[in-house]
Structure formats: C-alpha cells, structure tokens
Amino acid sequence: MAIKNIIVSSTYFLLLFLLLLSFASCTKNKQVYVVELFGDEHEPLHQIENTHHSYLLSVKESEDEAQASLLYSYKHSINGFAALLTPKEAQKLSEMEGVVFVHKNQPRIYSLHTTRSWEFVGLDGSLNPWTEESNQTNGDSVNLLTKAKYGEDIIVGMIDNGVWPDSKSFSDEGMKPVPKRWRGVCVNGTAFDSSQCNRKIIGARYYLQGYENDFGPLNEKEDYKSARDKDGHGSHTSSIVAGRVVPNASALGGFAKGTASGGAPLARLAIYKACWPIKGKPKDEGNICTNIDLLKAIDDAIGDGVDVLSISIGFSSPISYEDDMIAKGALHAVRNNIVVVCSAGNSGPLPHSLSNPAPWIITVVASTVDRSFLAPIKLINGTVIEGQTITPLHMGNSFYPLVLASDVEHPGLPTRDSGYCLDNTLQPNKVQGKIVLCMRGQGKRLQKGLEVQRAGGVGFILGNNKLNGNDVPSDPHFIPATGVSYENALKLIHYVHSTPNPMAQILPGRTVLKTKPAPSMASFSSRGPNIIDPNILKPDITAPGVDILAAWTAEDGPTRMTFLDKRVVKYNIFSGTSMSCPHVAAAAVLLKAIHPTWSSAAIRSALITTAMTTDNTGNPLTDESGSPATPFAMGSGHFNPIKATDPGLIYNASYNDYLLYTCSLGVTQNLNITHTCPKSYSEPFQLNYPSIQMHRLNHTKTIKRTVTNVGKSKSVYKFSAKSPKEYSITATPNILKFNHVGQKMNFNITVTENKGQIVTKDGPDKYYFGWYTWSDEHHVVRSTVAVSFA
Ligand SMILES: *[C@@H]1O[C@H](CO)[C@@H](O)[C@H](O)[C@H]1NC(C)=O
Ligand SMILES: *[C@@H]1O[C@H](CO)[C@@H](O)[C@H](O)[C@H]1NC(C)=O
Ligand SMILES: *[C@@H]1O[C@H](CO)[C@@H](O)[C@H](O)[C@H]1NC(C)=O
Ligand SMILES: *[C@@H]1O[C@H](CO)[C@@H](O)[C@H](O)[C@H]1NC(C)=O
Ligand SMILES: *[C@@H]1O[C@H](CO)[C@@H](O)[C@H](O)[C@H]1NC(C)=O
Ligand SMILES: *[C@@H]1O[C@H](CO)[C@@H](O)[C@H](O)[C@H]1NC(C)=O
Ligand SMILES: *[C@@H]1O[C@H](CO)[C@@H](O)[C@H](O)[C@H]1NC(C)=O
Ligand SMILES: *[C@@H]1O[C@H](CO)[C@@H](O)[C@H](O)[C@H]1NC(C)=O
C-alpha cells in the first residue's frame, strides 16, 4: 500500500492532499465497484436489497460469497450497490440487463475545504451588510429570521466527520418536537448513543465500509467508531449552520468574543459521518472519505428526509462527473427536492482548482469578514507595522533583536529551503532571545513557530509570500507571534538590512471590528474556470470562510496538531471553504422555510442573482492581491440572505432538465447514460442557469433562458447589460411584462464579439467578464457572464 502525499499548500488551515493510492493488494484481485441499476421508484426497500443480492449472485460462486462481497445497498432514489468485484465480474455485470454503469471506486480525499460572520451579513438583527443601494434595516433581518422561524421546521444533513454533541451550540433547550416527517435514526456507537440525539441533533449515522476496506480497521485511538467528532471540523460546520445562540463564546485567549450562533439557530441537524483520519497522521494533515461511504451517506440522507445538505468535502482538483459520487448523490438529492451546498475547495489562488462544479450543486468559495485580530510589530525606532494573530501569549514591554530566518539558519541549507523555518534549520546560538521572521511558501505555519521556539527564540513573525499577498492568516501559535502581509514582510526585511541593531516588539493581539475593507477573497479559496464543463460558470457564490468562530470538540486542540497541542477549547477559529459552505447552507434553510415550494434551483437562483459585488467601502470586492475579484474567484458575488428572500425573478430547473443536461454531456464525459436520453436534446449551455459562460465563442451565439416571476403579480422588467469592450450582450425581447406570480417568460441572450477587440495572443482560454440584469422598481436580477473567444 503506497500512499504519497503531495502538499499543495504549505499552510496549515489550507492543507490539501492528493493521495495517489494503489491498494489492490488488500483483497487479492478484488476492488470496490459501484454498480448502478435502472430504478423502479415504487419497489419496496427489502425487495431492492434482494435485487442487488441476485445481481451479485449471478457473478459470484456462492450465496455466502455474494453476501460477503456486498458493502452497501443504495436504495433511496439511487438504485445500486457497492461491492468487491474482480475486473472480470465487473465486466460481466456491466453487460447485464438493467445495469446502467459499473464504476471502479476512486478513493476521495476531503479537504477542509460564529459570531461576526452572521452579523456581517445582516442576520444578527442589529446591522445591515455594507450598503449597496440597499436599505436593509434591523427590521429586515429580524423579519427574515422570524418569518423563517429560525429554521425550526427545516432539517439539515451534515455530511462531515461527526459532531461533539455536548457543546452548548447543540442544546435543544426550548425546541419544539422533531418534525413528524423525519424518518432518520440515531445510530449507537463509541461514546455516542441514541440519548445523545435530541430535538437539535435529530439523527446521527456513520459510514466505515469504504474506509475500512481501503485502509484497514479504524484505529480507535484516532477516532470514535460513532458519529462523535474527535477532530473539530464537523462540530464547527454544524454549528455554523444551526448552532444555538451561545452568549460570551470566544476562542483561546478570548479572541472574537461575542455571541456564537448558527445562521438558522433552530434548524434541526442530521449528522452523517463519512470522513475519517488518515492513519498515523495528525489531524491537521486532513481526513479521508471514500466515494462509496459518501454515496451511502447521501442515500441515507435522502431516505431520512433532510431538506438541505451541507457538504464541505471535495477533491483538491476537479474530477469528472463520472468519478464524482458527490455529484451523483447530489443529483438524486436534488431529484428529491433537497438543496445541496458544497465547498469549492482550498486550492487557490491558482486557476482551475475548484471542485464540486456540477450545476445542480451550489458551489461556495470563501472570503473575509470585517473582523481582524491585530497584533502589530513595534520597531524600536517607533514605527509600527500591522500584524495579525490569535496567539494568546504576550512578550511584555521589552524590545528584542529581530532577525531574518535566512540569516540564522544552519549553513549549507539549499537556497530553495531557506527562510521558511523548516524543522531543525535554525541555529540556536543565533536565535536565542530573538524574534525571527519566517516566510510562508514551504512547511506548516504552526510548525515554523515551534521551530523558532525550539531554537530559543522569544517571538515569531510569519511573513506572507507574494502569492498570499494581503491575506494574512490568524493562527494560535505556541510562542508570542504575529503574521504580516507580503508588503509588510518586505518592510521588515528592509528594516533588518538597513539598521545595525534591529529591535522589535510584538504587541498583544486584540479583536477589532470594521477596520478593513471586507469581504475580500481568501487566497486559499479555489478558483474557476470550471474545467469539467466550460459551459457552466463556477463558482456560484462567496460567503464568510476566514477566521470563523464556531463550536469545537473537546478531544482536539485548536490547531488539530494532535500530538503537540493539548489545549482544550469549546469554540475555535477556523478558516476554509468548509466554513463558507455551511453559511450558504444556512441561508438555504431560511429561504426554504420562507418559500417551502421553491425548488433547489430557485433557491440557488435567488442567492446568485442577489449576490453583492462590492465591499463595505463601496468598492469592488477584491482578491488577495487587492485587485477586483473576477467571477472565477468570487462567483456572482457575496451572498445576501435578506435580499435573496425576494429576488423578483428566478431561473428554475428541474431534475429532468439536469438529466437532459447530462445527456448533452454524455459524449464528452462518457457518462453512459445516453440510452436513457431522448433522441434530441439541447446543448449543455442551454441549461437554465442564472449565470452564463461561453467557451471559445466563434463570433456570436444566442442562448435561451426562462425566468419565473416570484415577485409582484403585475410587474415589468427591463433589460440592461454591462459588457467589456470585447463583446456586447443583447436580449430579445428586452422588456418582460408579467401578469401573475408563477408566470414564466422566455428570452434570448445574444453575445457578439466586437470586431477588432480580441487580442489573439491572449488565447482561447482568456475570459472576459460582464453581466446583464432584469430590473423593475424593486428588484435587480443580475446574471454574470464569462466569455472566451475561439
Ligand atoms: C433608508 O431608510 C431610511 C429610513 O427608512 C430613509 O430615511 C433613507 O432615505 C433610506 N435610504 C435609502 C438609500 O433608501
Ligand atoms: C443504543 O444505546 C441505548 C443506550 O445505551 C440503548 O438503550 C439502546 O437500546 C441502544 N440501541 C440499539 C439499537 O442498540
Ligand atoms: C457575558 O459576559 C459579560 C461581561 O463579561 C457578563 O456581564 C455577562 O453576565 C455574561 N453573560 C453570560 C450569559 O454569561
Ligand atoms: C524606522 O525604520 C523603518 C524601516 O527601515 C523606516 O521605514 C522608518 O521610517 C523608520 N522610522 C523612523 C521613525 O525613523
Ligand atoms: C420550479 O420548478 C419546480 C419543478 O421542477 C416546481 O416544483 C417549482 O414550483 C418551480 N418554481 C419555483 C419557484 O421553484
Ligand atoms: C460505457 O459504454 C461503453 C460502450 O458500451 C463501454 O465501452 C464503456 O466501458 C462504458 N464505460 C463505463 C464507465 O461504464
Ligand atoms: C467560425 O465559424 C466560421 C463560419 O461561421 C468557420 O468558418 C470558422 O472555421 C469557425 N472558426 C472556428 C475557430 O471554429
Ligand atoms: C429565441 O431564438 C430562437 C432561435 O432563433 C427562436 O426560435 C425563438 O423564438 C427566440 N425566442 C424569443 C423569446 O425571442
């Protein structure tokens, strides 16, 4: 069994892995396959299991062998099974009547892909988001939450790595009985029995077949064999969606003190634990989830009756729909009217890095809120340089010598490894009693601080490299520390080089609000364009995902460095698209509560077309370099739950539309579903999506869209567009007159190249961005447009 980790990002929160796995050896010639069958929706569940068994029996020698080889039966909407098969048996099955596809399982790695965050989007009842032209008052947000009954009737399925049920965030005090339609269960396991479920956590299950088949039995020192969370991630995401209101919550050292609350504090949680530790690795190196476990978790969630699925799981790079069991499961979930929200991943800022691009999923990237944890550096000449940390340690009032890591390393270190404070690289005699500046770019952030501590340093400054730019991380280090932007790192380097006795002091960290432009994209947040299908613009939307305070497990320190960090915290600050995804899931809960008849496409459309593209200073939302963020970084903009409740028009789509879409992709994606497709179907870009991407446009193209009126019965919407100089956007008709709610109108959007404006050397993969809107007196329904030219 060979497992190779390739560290994509050197940073701790953003650590991602690509595991190259070859574990054919475990069970002779047998590998895990997923076999999908044509479904009969009305078949009773036990009969479905019998059918699965009989398929297996037809390729296996005996009843017992068939029984032993079956890992899971999928039976709610998805009809199929996971089993251990030889390639021959798989081939035989794939030729049988009734089999849709036989797919060799790929192990799937999950990347970790509150207080202030809800206030920041105007949902705490006290503050409006930064103002666009909007005029949202306290009243609006209280209104939204009360109208949605704080999510009390809505059930959210969390596909993650469990929950810490003892956290105050999951108390069910004062909650009404569990909705009658709930069909889920609370599965007993280690340190978690059915008594842990209550009116807040209404279901809990866990999935180990895929994991144990690939990696051997769970090491019960590393995780609980139950839905209990030993890691922190699952508790954090669950409490962001639906944590109760907990006053005076704060992280280690009192940072971010305030009232912790989920976005939908009375929503019900159903826990599906499908992700487990990487054996023998500390938690901060990631968790692993297998395709078949994820598919089973989604299948059960469909059967149990969840309304929204929050999935902060994904590959570090895109994979085809065929290999992607989250995409497959999500399609079935959407068929059952479940809204599926997924994280886009933490593989930014490089392009093409986003995962979960299926158009039936809401794909969420991550941005900042207007809160900082400032811990400036004071130079002895009086100059103060801004820094950020959540380290609860102070160095007192003295100044200490400031050195650059590259000047105090053991001699002979290769230049490429220099300046990063990697393990055992610093010379204690040159570091003793000093503050050391270490650069990002290689190695883990917290480990660098430990290296400075090992060498006897009294303080540690983490300098961003150019790629990270202004996106300064906030970490809980083990010695007094702070982090600085790339620009400030250069200032410090200049200071050290220009002074004979550079001396500095790191001031204690403190929480400050409203001091910086926000939101701004996190540098770790994955980017488009969508390479799985260039006809669909992804990501969809951004939400808070940087330094989010939420519930934690008591079994793991705030840094998840299992072997080192024995600190115990009830609440912890954490970053990732894993944190932004549950924010949008909570917004979906509120929308679903207010508009119970809306489809998942309607909810996505409402969120996308009302998203904000400016920050709290009224300027365009920026990325980590300080430039305006493109739609490949921020999607259609920052979510705005209050506006999304009243979008005016929505772009709807049904399960059948998605099927036709996959038919149109069948050829390129080898989905092998073409035999269920009608003879003719439109092209993939005709899917009624609320944004538009045209890839390698040859001069001009017209596509059809349909909007449904969900605003005032009598209303008139006018078209308007803003396009770059490279093309123009027109609509026919350009006025839409509605007479009743629910009325649909078609229009055509034509994008035409402006002659002589395309710089051919930019090539066919250079995208140019614009947008169009439909607006009446009350609504602006905005669609983002991305075009590249052949
Ligand atoms: C916002 O609302 C206040 C109070 O209702 C009103 O005075 C003000 O003019 C409004 N501002 C805008 C921009 O509509
Ligand atoms: C689960 O555990 C509870 C409490 O220990 C016990 O009462 C119950 O019977 C168990 N249920 C099952 C299905 O084992
Ligand atoms: C929260 O903290 C404040 C000040 O520290 C204190 O006055 C208040 O009683 C605390 N509230 C709760 C519910 O503990
Ligand atoms: C202190 O040193 C820095 C870095 O060399 C320099 O930019 C700054 O102007 C100095 N401040 C004062 C007050 O001399
Ligand atoms: C959208 O389409 C679905 C059917 O696919 C339908 O149930 C729903 O009413 C439509 N409209 C809205 C606003 O969701
Ligand atoms: C899809 O079908 C083709 C032709 O029937 C077959 O060659 C191919 O292996 C199938 N692919 C999968 C993934 O099942
Ligand atoms: C663009 O379309 C024209 C005809 O409409 C065709 O001759 C040309 O080959 C096309 N170019 C590309 C790059 O597809
Ligand atoms: C859109 O274009 C198609 C094809 O050119 C045409 O058949 C249809 O009538 C147009 N729809 C509208 C609303 O103009």
Automatic annotation (TrEMBL):
State the source organism's domain of life: Eukaryota
Q: What does this protein do?
A: Required for arbuscular mycorrhiza (AM) development during AM symbiosis with AM fungi (e.g. Glomeromycota intraradices).
Residues covered by the Inhibitor I9 domain: 32-108
Q: Which GO terms describe its biological process?
A: proteolysis; response to symbiotic bacterium; response to symbiotic fungus
Q: What is the lineage of its organism?
A: Eukaryota, Viridiplantae, Streptophyta, Embryophyta, Tracheophyta
- Domain Subtilisin-like protease fibronectin type-III, first and last residues per copy: 686-787
UniProt KW keywords: Apoplast, Glycoprotein, Hydrolase, Protease, Secreted, Serine protease, Signal
Name of protein: Subtilisin-like protease SBT5.6
The similarity annotation says: Belongs to the peptidase S8 family.
Query: In which organism is this protein found?
Result: Clitoria ternatea
Catalytic residues (UniProt): D160, H233, S578
Enumerate the spans annotated as PA domain: 401-492
InterPro entries, per database record: PA_dom_sf (IPR046450), PA_domain (IPR003137), Peptidase_S8/S53_dom (IPR000209), Peptidase_S8/S53_dom_sf (IPR036852), Peptidase_S8_Ser-AS (IPR023828), Peptidase_S8_subtilisin-rel (IPR015500), Peptidases_S8_3 (IPR034197), S8pro/Inhibitor_I9 (IPR010259)
Name where it's found.
Answer: Secreted, Extracellular space, Apoplast
Indicate the secretion signal residues: 1-26
